[in-house]
Amino acid sequence: MTYFAGLDVSLEETSICVVDESGRIVKEARAASEPGALGEALREVDLPLERIGLEACSLTAWLHDGLRAEGLAAICIETRQANAAMKTMPNKTDRNDARALAQIMRTGWYRQVHVKSRQCRLWRSLLVARRTVLNEMRSIENVVRAMQREAGVKLGLPSRSAFAGRVRELAGGDAEVMAMVEPLLSVLSTMLREFARLTNRVLDIAGLLLVLRSIWADKMRAVCRCLCNWPASGLKPQFTPYRRAWQATRPSGDHAQRGFRSRYARPMCAGRRRAHQDRPG
Question: Helices marked H in the chain — which ranges?
Fold first, then answer.
C-alpha cells in the first residue's frame, strides 16, 4: 500500500497529514518548520511515502531542498490550485489544509512548481538587495529635494555622486535647513558606497557567466562540427539526436539548392545582364 503526505507550512510550525491510497487518514502531527525536524517527523511515520506535497511559499524552497537531500519525495505544488481545493474544506485551519494537501497528493490533481537552485535564488536576492538600496536612495533624494524647494532652492539634475555636494553648495548658508538635511546626506553617502559594492558584485557575476557561456558555446560548436562530419553509419546512438538537431538547422536536398539558386543566383544573373546591356558598344 502506498501513502501520501501533505505539509501545511507556517513560519513556526508545520502541520503534517498522512493518508493511504484509499484516502483514510493514517497519522497527523506537527513539527517545527525546519528540514531536519520535518524529516525526523516523516521518518517516525515509518511508512513508504509516495509523494510529499508542500504549497509554494517563502520557506518552500529551503524545506524542499532539505527534504530532497534526505531522500524524501518532496513536491512543491502551485498555490492557486491548492487554494482552490482548500476552499472546499468547511473550516480554514492548518490541520485541514494539511489534510487537503494530502488528498491532492493522493489524487494527483496538482501542478508541480519548479524549485530553482540555491545559487539562482542567491543571485536573485542580490538583485533584490541592489534594487532596494537604489529605491531607498531615490526616496531620500526626493525628500531632500522637497525640503530644498521649501527653502526656495532648486537643485537641478546633479549626478548621484555629486548630489550631496550640490546640496551643501546651494543650502550651506541656511543652518536650520542643513540641520535637517545633513543626516539624510550622511545616510545617502553610506547607501551610495554600499550600492557600489552590490553593483560590483553583480558585474563580477555577470562577467563570469559571460565567460562560461562563451566557453560552452565554443565547445558545442566543436562537438557539432565533429558530429556533422561523422558518417551516419558509424555514429553512436547517443549522439544521433545532436546530429539531427544540427542538420535540422541547415538547408539540404534539392529544395534547398533550388531555394539558394532562386534567391542568390537569379539576382546575380540579372545584374550581369543589366551590366551587359548597359555596356557601351
Answer: 35-45, 60-69, 79-86, 94-107, 118-150, 163-171, 175-228, 240-248, 253-260, 266-278
Average pLDDT score over residue span 126-137: 93
| C-alpha–C-alpha distance, residues 145 and 167, integer Å | 9
Residue 157 CA: distances (Å) to CA of 141, 162, 163, 194: 11, 10, 9, 22
> Which of 198, 213, 228 finishes a domain?
213
* Residue 125 shares a structural domain with residue 200: yes
Total domains in the chain come to 2
Q: 2 vs 21, 64, 96, 123, CA distance in Å? A: 6, 21, 21, 39
Residue 26 buriedness (CB in 10 A; 0-12 / 13-18 / 19+): middle
pLDDT band for position 278 (50/70/90)?
Answer: very low
Sequence letter at residue 174: D
Q: Structure pTM?
A: 0.64
Per the structure block, which three cell numbers stand in for 201?
Answer: 558584485
